[in-house]
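INFO batch 0412 | record 1 of 1 | parsing
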Amino acid sequence: MNKIDMIGKKYGMRTVLSEEGLDKNGAILYLCKCECGKEKIVNGSSIRKSLSCGCKNYHPSIHKLSGTRIYRIWCGILKRCFDKKSPGYKYYGARGIGVSEKWKSFPNFFNDMGHPPFGCSVERKNNNEGYSKDNCKWATIKEQNNNKRNIRKITYQGITMNMTEWANHIGTSPPALHHRIVKLGIPIELALSIPFTRSNSAKKFTGEIK
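INFO prediction complete | emitting tokens
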């Protein structure tokens, strides 16, 4: 059976910090930290079955949101920012885009943002900063596009053109280039240099979170 990589991942209220040897049955032991602050060494099976250390701060009503869009959005943010195996990591975590300490807890994220309005997704007000209450809001696609007017003129390698001109120059469509730069927040130099092929199209870089 393949070993499950659990380091850095969160299960319910507990985050896996490190491996701590084996138990008497040969199962891997992990040091975990609960949102209440308590640290405890348990085996992997226990982590996946129990969502907290048993503390009184565990909120079953909050966990019932695990199948909702808001919970998936939060998981997507953490995955892009911290999971090096995630396809989106190089555009987020590797660029230094992180998550505030407060928002590493789902209840805190939910309390600050609430459920997403219909047709909206998370927008970072400053694409060079991470995910936090002060830097994020719910926005429609139209609002997100309007907020990106500053990149309609793009300077790259000493050449300045608008997005349509750049799309024509590199042999792709304006919507495809717009998708990379505006919706996904990919840096200009990468957006203009990654080839647009059938196996490496804009559709490959889809996702819930921007």
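INFO post-check: DSSP finds eight helices and eight strands in the chain.
INFO record closed
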